[in-house]
Amino acid sequence: MSPRLVVTVAGRSAVTDLGRARGPAFGLPVNGALDQYSARVANILVANDENAPIIEATAFDVAFVPDTDVLIAVTGASMEVTVDGCARPMWEPVPVVAGQEVRLASMTAGMRTYVAVHGSFDVPDLLGSCAPDTVIGFGTVLADGAAIALRARTAAPVNPYFGISLFHFGVDRPHFGDTAYVDVTDGPDIEEFAGTSRRLFDAPYRVSTQSDHIGLRMTGSLPERVRADEMISRGIPVGAIEVPPGDELLVLHRGRGVTAGYPVLAVATSTSLDALGQVRPEASVVFRGVTVDQAGRDARAWRERLDALRDRVATVYSCIGADDLVPLRPLERNLP
């Protein structure tokens, strides 16, 4: 029988990856991990491809028991991580012996936690991605008692009986607080809001409980569109900030439809999408305007941090002789 992981507490979790890059060409949203940085770090720490399937746990506790030795990494929203009752660190590789229970509990900050297992999960995919799509009913959503097949058996590379992590890779950990700071560039329709567009930056917005992976609804001081004519539906980017009729601002995330017909006031930068993926209902969001050039520099710095981490991980695993744990090099990666 293939090695597997049995879910004892599913909470609200699913197996996902970085998203369905081919989806928009077929009218499907990209979906995938809402906090791409945390998801990528989790996979790097266990020497997986950054796009390998991982567990995304939203808000609630999760527990599972592997039937083979595994190496895991937990990143994202802050939770208490234990292995058979012993505390283990987030943002570091953690060896787990077959039969031990891994439990993630008491999320204290952020909204989504990620669990990567070296070798990853063997789950169905659609257009090259396992990312769940709630509209078409595709994906691997976890349930109590479910078993997820692992792609390979892998021995834990270090002594599992130490109470502290044997690795300290110095991962840059994002801060998850009650207020999220989100950088945005001007949207294509900003001129339609005339002198009111600056309201976006004047005061914080509050996230509605109606928010989800498709988009975040926010209340606050809304810019006013000066034109009254209808807009023709068109392609819309992830991160588009729309001002539909009514009393809410709408920020589209990775589960959004590929077309929409509301005016786009601004667009959240790719790095700020990670922060939006960790925002809780009732939290505050402060928007900050940046240029496209600055957004590009931030994205390159974001990429460089991940590359530097991958190099550190590769060096350590090579030094301990764990050659099967050396992460893939950039030219070997297949990222969406």
TrEMBL record:
Residues 25-305 form the Carboxyltransferase domain. Coiled coil: none annotated. GO terms for molecular function: ATP binding; hydrolase activity. The keyword Plastid does not apply. Keywords: ATP-binding, Hydrolase, Nucleotide-binding. This is Biotin-dependent carboxyltransferase family protein. The lineage of its organism: Bacteria, Bacillati, Actinomycetota, Actinomycetes, Micrococcales.
